[in-house]
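Demo today. Your pick:
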Amino acid sequence: MKSKNKRLTIGQFAALHGIHKKTLMWYDEIGLFQPAAIDPDNGYRCYDYHQSPILETILLLRELDVSIGEIRAFMQNRSAENLKILLEQKSADLDNRIMHLQAVRKTLQSHHQDMVTLLTMDLSEISLVEKEEHCLVTVAIDKNTTFEEEVELITAETARYRLGRLHDAAYGSMISVKSLQRGSFDDYSRLFIEIPFLSQKNGLHRQPAGTYLRAFHKGGWDGIAARYREILDYAHGQGLTLHGYSYEKGINETVIDRIADYIVQIEIPVHR
């Protein structure tokens, strides 16, 4: 600008900052940001270019969802220290929002992949897939654990990891390969919660990276034993050694109404 001392009209000042002039009028009315002067002849608001940094600070805080009350309190006691504290607080809030949105995006991608799988799968097929390592939150269960107790365990863990909604994570169950090999197909030992973007991994169950046998079961749990027998026969016939745990996860709960249509994805790590 040729002269930063020249007064700007409300329209010019609003355009300079990419906002509507009604915003400036509202800020003036509520005592948040006043014009440099009022033209005595026509009552129009006039602004100085040097007010720009103050307005930009207000606009930045509004983008960070800082309330008008908080901004007004800061403006009444404006200082480097107070702005530093306010920005640190809001930066932390923004980091949490970003983490949550990233988790939601990962959940959407997971659901999308489940739908792709549903539309292309052959339920009778048993295949080998490569998987990356995943860290899982797990809770111990046994045959005597009631459904109500399972719900309480899951609720406690979701609260512990500050999950706002159930859709913020993926859930499933685990049964050891040893149990499968001795025919104890209902001997589930853990429930798992896969939480995107965990900040710490100590004490969590590590689902190992590597080759997994993948199969699907459709219907209620009364028929899953037969499916596991088919999986064990397939692994034996292919010379595959199963190890660790079988990880079960429902993939179509959102698009069915009957348990008869429920599809479980089964993944078991293997050695060739």
Observations:
- Helices lie at 10-16, 21-29, 52-63, 68-76, 80-120, 147-160, 177-181, 224-237.
- The mean pLDDT is 89.
- The chain has eight helices and twelve strands.
